[in-house]
Amino acid sequence: MQPESAHALKVAFVAGVAPGKWFHRWEERFPDQPLASQMVDDAQQLAVLRDGTADVAFVRLPVDRDKEALHVIPLYEELAVVVAPKGHEIQAFEEIPLGEVEDELFEYDGGPSERLDLVEGGAGLAIMPMSVVRHFNRKDLRYRPVTGVKPYAVGIAWRREDESELIQEFIGVVRGRGANSSRQASVQRDQQEAAQKRRENLAATQSKEAKARNEASRAAKSARGGKFGTRGGKPGGGKGRPASGKGRPGQRRGR
């Protein structure tokens, strides 16, 4: 069933996340419900939820769900890679231990595109999610998996205060629930409405049956009252006496 909403569902995602498969499932399931999407920098992934720019967001974990008052569901992990300019010695290895490149890393809090610009410009090496590096596809950069670094995790987040059916439907799509899953918001609503309808029908039927029983009871009482008020077919309820002039059995008539 179509979720009830008059506006588009706004979805944000950070670079490297490929939400196309979920968007496609949404369009197949709810073709009349629009969806608006935007890519944001990691630094803005929570801000768009705070200010309402996005209803839900695919974010890089960890995030402080309690401080931000968010629901957060982890989805998957990504491989960490070290990125270097073309021609760097990392190209000679299949994977690199963190200790081998740690001294060449630089600190930067900006977006991933700018970070890659700095690597390309010779500022140093960077450790990033492999999906991000592939997303930007810089021909003058090279990358290798780096060991000794925790994988990057991706999750989906939304505000705790927003429990709309529209969002719950999208969360269900992302988590792979089928259209008829009992955990889908619209299915639960349909089940509740059907249960309410059954209760109303049952109450109406019981009321109708009770009314019929009452009418039958009144009719029976009325019928019993008429029968006992005319016993023997005569008013008053008494039995008729023997005809005068006739004696009782065994008596003789006088002369």
TrEMBL record:
UniProt domain LysR substrate-binding: residue ranges: 21-104, 116-176
Top-rank taxon: Bacteria
A GO cellular component entry from the record: protein-DNA complex
Record's compositionally biased regions (Polar residues): 179-189
Region (Disordered): 178-255
UniProt keyword annotations, A-Z: DNA-binding, Transcription, Transcription regulation
One Gene Ontology MF term: DNA-binding transcription factor activity
Annotated Basic and acidic residues bias: 190-201, 208-218
Residue ranges with Gly residues bias: 226-240
Family, as annotated: Belongs to the LysR transcriptional regulatory family.
PANTHER family in UniProt: HCA OPERON TRANSCRIPTIONAL ACTIVATOR HCAR, TRANSCRIPTIONAL DUAL REGULATOR HCAR-RELATED
Protein name as it appears in the record: LysR substrate-binding domain-containing protein
